Amino acid sequence: MRTSVLDRFLRYVVIDTRSDERSRSCPSTPGQLELMHLLQAELQALGVTDAAVDEHGYLMATIPATRGFEAVPPIGFLAHVDTSPEMPGHGVRPLVHRRYDGGDIVLPDDPSAVLRVADDPALGSAIGQDIVTASGLSRPDIPHGPVRIGFTPDEEIGRGADRFDVGRFGAVCAYTLDGGGAGELEYESFSADAMTLTFEGFNTHPGYAKGRMINAIRLAARFLDRLPAADLSPETTSGYEGFVHPYHLDASVDRTSVKVLIRDFVTAALAEKEALVERIARDVVQAHPGAVLNVSIQEQYRNMREVLDAHPVVVARARAAIRRAGLEPVEKPIRGGTDGSRLSFMGLPTPNLFAGEHSFHSRLEWVSVQEMEKAVEVIVHLAELWAREEIEPRPRA
Predict the structure, then answer these.
(1) The pTM of the whole model exceeds 0.85
(2) Is the pLDDT of residue 366 over 90?
(3) 347 three-state secondary structure
(4) Over the stretch 71-130, which tens digit does the pLDDT of each residue have?
(5) How many whole angstroms separate alpha carbon 120 and alpha carbon 124?
(6) Ranges in the chain annotated CATH 3.40.630.10
């Protein structure tokens, strides 16, 4: 019996796979491992004999080449199993809205949550499609080389590539399925660092604090108030503009830490933004004798285009596969990162393809069944393109 992409999707989303950056385990949450084992069983049921989950919760498998195409370089397809910790992951009740008519979609378990075309233009382009909110295709055998399949944990908290064994995966390139609307092809991402600024003050009894207390919470508040909001915040930037984004506060009078995301498409510009942030923080501290500032910077990922520009065939074949699926490629920068941002620098060139996702990391997140099916088409065309182009190269124009 054929299982459709919708059937599988509805089975997966009821598993709580939120990642947790406070956890030191890998995967960071048990639900991710539960989904990995379900995917492993499904791959085995499809005849994929080497599907295996390693000790870190990474699933890898191989679809062998068709006869006569064994010499084709192996390519890979990757997806992450975790969902963002910013939204609940338990008690998910997926709803399928058949032949969406363009009207408002009210989530029944929370009537205040409403999807509207006016708020989400992509929803307007999905009229007539089947939409899945919270609360397949049969194909003839096609020629293809070896296809490696990988599922990673903890991508949403920036750890998806931490323990990914590129050598064991053994592909010349890969494609992540982690994008939005039909036709999207992404091969450039932010370069990203994370800054932690820790303000150390002095705590004493508030009734006798005059002239003695240095309130680290107030220092952090002054720092946050001085960060540029008009032109360097996520709320005021788009396209190729970078930003500075304070996103977490661990506060006490004695010691307050602020975590800040630094993003830019030009890697060298990260240092400029970090210098600005540190200068603002030090100006605040210097105005309060006795206060101390500690700054740490953690590299997160780099713009994948720096690698992919050296491997144009990887992107060109994705572009061709999208067109074979009857779509026009929609090429735009990722204002974020994917596993591919790091894997590309680890020796596995990895652009990102659409998967039909919309309103990411939101309780109004939704997906189009037809766009998921188109994503399946693109995967099939890619496998065939790599086989045909390598075995039977087309003459140059």
Answers:
(1) no
(2) no
(3) coil
(4) 999 999 999 988 777 666 566 666 678 888 888 887 766 677 787 888 888 888 888 888
(5) 7
(6) 5-189+303-391
CATH architecture label of 5-189+303-391: 3-Layer(aba) Sandwich (3.40)
Among candidate residues 353, 291, 290, 292, the one with its CA nearest the CA of residue 321: 353
Is position 365 annotated as part of the catalytic site? no
- What is the location of CATH 3.30.70.360 in the chain? 191-300
Q: Which of 130, 154, 155, 373 is catalytic?
A: 155
* DSSP three-state, residue 28: coil
Buried-exposed string 149-169: b where 16+ CB fall within 10 A, e elsewhere: bbbbbbbbbbbbbebbeeeeb
Q: Is 50 labeled as catalytic in the residue annotation? A: no
- Per-residue pLDDT band for 257 (boundaries 50, 70, 90) equals very high
Q: Which of 21, 34, 50, 82 is flagged as catalytic?
A: 82
* pLDDT score of 331: 96
CATH 3.30.70.360 fits domain 191-300: yes
